[in-house]
Amino acid sequence: MRPATLPVELSAPCCSGRGVVLERPARGWQRRQGPVLASQPARRTHQQQQGSGGGRAAAAAGGGGTPAHPSTRTAAYAAGLGSFASSMAAAATATEAPAAEAAGQRQGAQQPPAGEAQRDSDGLLRNRPRPLKINLDLALYRARQKRLVANSSRMLSDRSRMLREVEEALRRCMEAFPEDGRPYVSLGKLMVQQRRYKEALALYEEGCTATGGTNAHIWSAWAYLAAKMGNVGLARKLYDAAIVANPTHAAAWHGWGLLEKDQGNYLRARDLWLQGIQSLRRNPNPYLYQSLAVLAAEMDCVEEARKWFREGTRTLTGKASHALWQAWALMEQRQGDKAMVRPLYKRGLEVSPRSRYLHLAWALWEKEQGDVEEARRLFKQGNERNPRDAAILQAWGLLEEEAGNIDEARRLFKRASKVDPNHLHVWQAWGCMEYRQQKYDTARELFQQGIWVAPPRAPAVCLIFQAWAMLERDAGNPELARELFKCAVKADPKSEPSWLVWAQVWAQMEEDLGFLQRAAELRSFNMQEHTEIVKPANFASGLGGEDKGAGLLAPIFGQIAKWFKRYEESGSDSDIELPELLPLDAVPKPEPEPLVAHACPELSAPVYF
Questions:
Q1: Alpha helices by DSSP H, 125-215
Q2: pLDDT confidence of 156, banded at 50, 70, 90?
Q3: In sequence order, what are the residues at sequence separation of 6 or more whose Cβ sits closer than 8 angstroms to the Cβ of residue 311?
Q4: How far apart are CA 462 and CA 485, in angstroms?
Q5: DSSP for 87-141?
Q6: What is the distance between the alpha carbons of residues 469 and 483, in angstroms, rounded to a whole number?
Q7: What are phi and psi for residue 130, nearest 5 degrees?
Q8: 584: pLDDT strictly greater than 50
Q9: Which of 40, 346, 443, 540 is 20 to 30 Å from 429 at the Cα level?
Q10: What is the mean pLDDT of residues 67-71?
Q11: Centroid of chain to Cα 243
């Protein structure tokens, strides 16, 4: 008698094009040719085994019965094993169903109500085959690759068709594995990309219900969408739910902190990132350190930013993160410390040789320092390691234009437009170069091409409208230039270059045309749109012992500083009344710091980390 076997699915076909099915008998392995099974059948219950035994006994005795519909398990085997297995399974089912029904009646088994399906301990239907986990992983990988190909497709029809196929594949994954959160997140991301926000919200809610609220990735994706739609209160609640589901989910801490930073709550953002670092002590996340350091640098706390950068680069993940090294180098670049910039960029490229961001940032800095050859070398190296990156080609083209190599710049811009036709900055830079070369018709065509390929409501398109407006102004078309300026401001109301052009160029153009009132209104409206980030009064670093007392005595020191300022302005202290200092009981007590960074010696120029 042949021993029982267990079918095992292999994803890769054999050389002959047919799948290989390995059977594991009681002793050893056997290899035979046959079709690849798409799923692993569920184990038969004790009741089904009894029914099968009774059916075989009845068949041996010559008994018969009315044939019943084949079960889903039997149908799966019939589809996989061919016509011979189909006939054998049908015969087994014909004798198995009456005996199984009789056994169930004898045992007093209660049948489920009509329309209600039974589920096993894993939440899957009992009477259907259980898919293998590898099938879900492969399906998600193929859907992701197809989505990337669709996003880079030039034809709208091909892109729409591939995205529909991706959505269908993800929905099949959700149906087969409703307890897995990855299909919900992937499909929700696709819907957000297509601006189907209401469907994405319903999908995330369905995913949280299916997973029992234990998947932090779905909560974080839901919170990001809520913040994107402007519902800040809901986004805070969803980020909180994600952290409750998984306190070590770094994306929830980071996303919540960015939300509070965008709302102007800098202290709250800093506290959230500190709590995230404390919760992820065993597995540190470099982006939390980077966000803390960048926030401190924006608040003019340079020493605190340096301490956070050092603390982050001491961890294993932070040491291998090119984002930390680049952000640190950019901060030192703004501070004017040239001795620190090159070692930091070099260290970043050592840990991540293919980082396009490091190549681009370092080459642009060398260009600012006047070292054109070094900048050209970095651009060339970055292009060799990232041939599909249009930003490096665009910056390289600008370098060649400034060096006087117009033909080489055109060649680089053309390569960049073929590599990524949707890169707006390539069309804008190329059009501006032709505009400076007095080739207005060519520049207009390039600007128009950039506007055509721009995504709907893309803020970056304001740069193209602004450059095109300048071209039309110089070409003697003030009416068209006025409309293009309006389009630039409507595309991105927060664009600083657009407001600067509005104040200096558009207002001057209106004044030259004789519209003095309109020019005055434009200048006045531009002054109202300027914003400034103000550092909170109690934004203390909390990193070392020298700064711990600043938060406690900040109100007292503030009153003393005001008194000294008044004293210096008056020039005499005879008529100055000393201010009444706040009692220590009225000063709020500082909470214990969750993290203290240790001191680190300063870096020197020849030392590489």
A1: 133-151, 156-176, 182-193, 197-210
A2: confident
A3: 289, 597, 598
A4: 9
A5: HHHHHHHHHHHHHHHHHHHHHTPPPPPTT---B-TTSSBTTSPBPPHHHHHHHHH
A6: 8
A7: -90, 115
A8: no
A9: 346
A10: 41
A11: 18
